[in-house]
Design goal:
alpha/beta, seven-stranded parallel sheet, 15 helices
């Protein structure tokens, strides 16, 4: 099958990582994949299967110079016209809220899919996105929702989308995760005696990830007499903010910002527990990764988490407030037996069956799945 995917850019993020695994898996299955990026230079491009064709609509770097912007716009228009001369078996908009006009107007394909990777009710632009999807409903043959919550939120916003909405969980490729964990050494500083290693992987974005609340909980854990090293992997626009919060709460000994790490799996392997404390998520990739790596996890109640974890058996689910998060963190840090119980790699079968997910994607592209 000849399949075109369109994304704005291919940088590190949960949705982009899931798309990377899907693209490589489809290519490995014998597909002929074209990835169209509005902007090139994303950090994940080099991890694509070399057989995947990558098309950049706007070459070079973004610029505020009017002439450069005009030239890049003209080149982008010419690039989309070149795409219109081809024919594909299927075309896919890979992210919720991404521009859809290339797939809708410029790509000739009998099947056109739109991924819904978020709980629309939790997005700041939910009304705008829902309005856009409703307006373009006929242009897409199916909507691929990465969780039950995402599907229900789509139908709640646009009831007429129900017949086209299908749940297909993200590709995980557990074997690759475990292989990448073995590929590098312990990325953390030397272990301090009796100090637990806590790991969080997140974009440093206050509104989405609750960075201030994370430092508040850390301070309370220190005041409760617990010793730990809390490593935060990731970067983002609010790095200065969390650095200031760490300094203000005198947490320099306990909280460490390691920045963006392309391969987080050795860190998972050498951590004692994982904390995913976001305000909102789609279907959180960190939860899946932590469980595949056999790690105990505390996760806030974000969209889809109940499809991933069984509270008290595969992880602890905290409510969206600092007291609940503190209670869960304190419990898991002071109860060795609980940590041992939660240190398992159990995920629901539907989340692990990558072959079935790929079958479903291919069936949608063939127009064979209906509700």
């Amino acid at each position: 099958m000849k399949i075109l995917f369109h994304l704005s850019q291919f940088n590190i993020g949960g949705g982009e990582m899931s798309t990377l695994r899907l693209l490589n898996a489809l290519q490995k299955r014998g597909g002929r994949i074209t990835l169209v990026l509005t902007e090139g230079g994303g950090t994940l491009e080099r991890r694509l299967d070399p057989a995947i064709e990558v098309v950049h609509l706007r070459p070079g770097k973004q610029s505020s110079h009017p002439l450069v912007r005009a030239l890049r716009g003209v080149w982008g228009a010419l690039g989309t016209l070149r795409l219109a001369l081809r024919r594909y078996d299927g075309a896919v908009v890979g992210m919720t809220g991404a521009p859809t006009w290339v797939v809708r107007h410029m790509v000739r394909a009998p099947a056109k899919l739109h991924f819904i990777r978020n709980d629309l009710s939790q997005l700041g632009r939910s009304q705008e996105i829902a309005s856009r999807v409703r307006h373009n409903l006929r242009a897409f043959t199916a909507f691929v929702c990465v969780s039950d919550v995402a599907r229900h939120s789509l139908i709640a916003a646009i009831p007429e989308a129900a017949q086209k909405a299908h749940v297909i969980y993200n590709i995980l490729n557990p074997d690759e995760m475990r292989m990448r964990a073995r590929g590098e050494s312990d990325p953390f500083p030397p272990r301090r005696k009796d100090a637990l290693r806590i790991m969080s992987v997140c974009r440093l974005h206050e509104k989405a990830k609750g960075l201030t609340r994370m430092t508040q909980v850390a301070r309370r854990l220190v005041d409760a007499g617990l010793d730990f090293d809390w490593f935060v992997l990731g970067d983002g626009p609010d790095r200065d903010h969390i650095e200031a919060e760490i300094a203000a709460r005198e947490l320099d000994r306990h909280m460490h910002l390691l920045g963006r790490i392309e391969n987080p799996f050795p860190a998972y392997a050498h951590a004692d527990l994982v904390a995913m404390l976001s305000n909102f998520e789609g279907l959180c990739g960190v939860v899946n990764e932590a469980k595949i790596m056999g790690k105990p996890i505390v996760a806030t109640r974000v969209s889809g988490v109940d499809e991933q974890l069984v509270h008290g058996e595969t992880g602890l689910i905290a409510e969206q407030d600092a007291d609940s998060i503190f209670d869960a963190m304190h419990k898991i840090m002071t109860d060795d037996a609980l940590r041992e119980t939660l240190a398992n790699d159990r995920l629901p079968a539907a989340l692990l069956d990558d072959a079935h997910k790929l079958d479903m994607i291919e069936m949608l592209l063939h127009g064979k799945v209906s509700k």
